[in-house]
Design goal:
It is built from 13 helices and no strands. By secondary structure, it is mostly helical. This is Carotenoid synthesis regulator CarF.
Length: 252
């Protein structure tokens, strides 16, 4: 019996159908979200600048912490989009799940997306977070509230550009500065990210810096989370991404 007879074939969606499935209504919603996002960023940035002279020592710690957490948040969203749901779901399917399915069928499709299609969904998700940030006091007499505001502000900005960084990791045309940042691992390195694109696409989800991938993989963070969700929902992870049989095999 030949060895390849034991291999369960991965079955994926048609890439042409996925590429043309970007809803016009969702693009409109993304565009509005992107505009609101940057308006809120401007308001909060102004409030932060006003107290920078008094709270300057918050900037570096909040930046570093936000950069690390943006890798985790991006990875968590990436894992959720890759693992659960179906393109056939109403509203969420074509709007939010479709891009994840398309990316595994055609990894270079993201390099053909414009700024809105690449980043606006992240901006849309960031709007309620920035709105909550407006409720925080940013004053020298409220150091804890101010630090949280600094952290949330930077985190939301970094998460906005997570998919842009992801796009650069797939781009064939990169300037020397981008290559330098990728080589020193300040942003996602293409060779590192290629591990995620090895079927069945079930590891190394973090796509801002990739710093947390090894740690999360070593403790089995996402597989444990999947088992917990399966226990209570009976849902099969990655069934829509790689096919039911391949998904079942990965659980054995």
């Amino acid at each position: 019996m030949q060895e390849n007879e034991h291999i369960t074939p991965i079955i994926q969606r048609n890439k042409e159908e996925l590429a043309t499935g970007y809803p016009k209504w969702f693009r409109f919603l993304e565009t509005i979200g992107l505009i609101i996002f940057f308006i809120l960023v401007g308001i909060i940035a102004f409030r932060i600048i006003k107290v920078t002279a008094d709270l300057w020592y918050f900037i570096i710690p909040s930046l570093i912490l936000a950069w690390i957490f943006s890798d985790f948040i991006g990875g968590l969203v990436h894992w959720a989009g890759d693992t659960w749901g179906s393109v056939d779901m109403p509203i969420l399917g074509p709007a939010l799940i479709r891009p994840f399915r398309e990316h595994h069928v055609d990894p270079y499709a993201i390099t053909r997306h414009d700024f809105i299609e690449t980043n606006a969904a992240c901006a849309l998700g960031g709007v309620p977070i920035l709105l909550s940030c407006l409720l925080l006091k940013i004053e020298k007499d409220f150091p804890l509230s101010s630090f949280i505001a600094f952290f949330v502000f930077f985190l939301t900005l970094f998460v906005l550009f997570t998919n842009q960084i992801h796009k650069w990791a797939h781009s064939k045309k990169r300037n020397k500065f981008l290559i330098l940042l990728q080589n020193v691992r300040v942003i996602l390195n293409p060779e590192h990210h290629q591990i995620h694109h090895t079927p069945p696409f079930n590891k190394y989800y973090c796509i801002t810096t990739g710093w947390l991938n090894y740690f999360l993989n070593s403790i089995g963070f996402f597989p444990k989370l999947e088992k917990l969700i399966m226990k209570y929902t009976k849902a099969l992870p990655r069934r829509d991404d790689i096919g039911i049989e391949a998904a079942k095999k990965e659980l054995k």
